Amino acid sequence: MNFNNARFYASYGRFSQIPPCEKIEIAFAGRSNVGKSTLINKIFNRKSLARVSSVPGKTATINFYELENVYFVDLPGYGYAKVSKMEKQRWSKLIEGYLNSNRDIRLVFMLIDMRHSPSADDITMVNYLIDMGLPFVIVLTKSDKLNKTQREKRMRSFEDEIPYFDEITVVPFSSQNFEGVETLRKIAEEIVNNDEIDG
User: Fold this and answer.
1) How many domains does the chain have?
2) What pLDDT, in 10s, does the model give residues 56-106?
3) pTM (2 decimals)?
4) For residues 175, 180, 185 and 191, what is the CA-based torsion angle, rounded to 10 degrees?
5) Domain that holds residue 66
6) CB neighbours of residue 177 within 10 Å
7) What is the DSSP string of the chain?
């Protein structure tokens, strides 16, 4: 796959607006300000394919990016406190509507900030993905912010904090030194190649 050829496809503010599934889909999920837009830009080697904002909760839509026979789907960030209850409910319906649909979701990249313990919303999402049987990879963002000792300590803590952590594929990621980018690209390519073989 030539990741440089990805293009923005469409944004949807409500699940009912999303057209029927026509390609396999790989989704990105995580709390507000965890770095989903930054990760997408790094994977596709672009500066502003996904709009990055310093304001948490800015991605209030489901954004689709197209690359060959795959849609990469950026879900709204969850857990941002400073929005109205109604807006939170809309985001929740968007995320749940998408993940609970019959769309051809092959993988979810679940982003968690490596520096901190996962939030209650993060744990809820991990359990939800497990319960739904959706394949997922945990991406630990902002890995460059920790030194070696801090990283080792956080990884040990994650074993207790995240259900089935030792059974989950985990990829540390940094937008500063590109750690994890190639690994995530290879994982995405494996998903696509398996689909081509099955097809």
Assistant:
1) 1
2) 545 578 999 999 999 999 998 887 656 667 766 766 778 888 999 999 999
3) 0.90
4) -130
5) 3-198
6) 10
7) --GGG-EEEEEESSGGGSPPP-SEEEEEEEBTTSSHHHHHHHHTT-SSSSPP-SSTT---SEEEEEETTEEEEEPPPB--SSS-HHHHHHHHHHHHHHHTSSS-EEEEEEEEETTSPPPHHHHHHHHHHHHHT--EEEEEE-GGGS-HHHHHHHHHHHHHHSTTGGGS-EEE--TTT-TTHHHHHHHHHHHHHHHHHH-
* C-alpha–C-alpha distance, residues 127 and 134, integer Å: 10
The CATH number covering residue 177 comes to 3.40.50.300
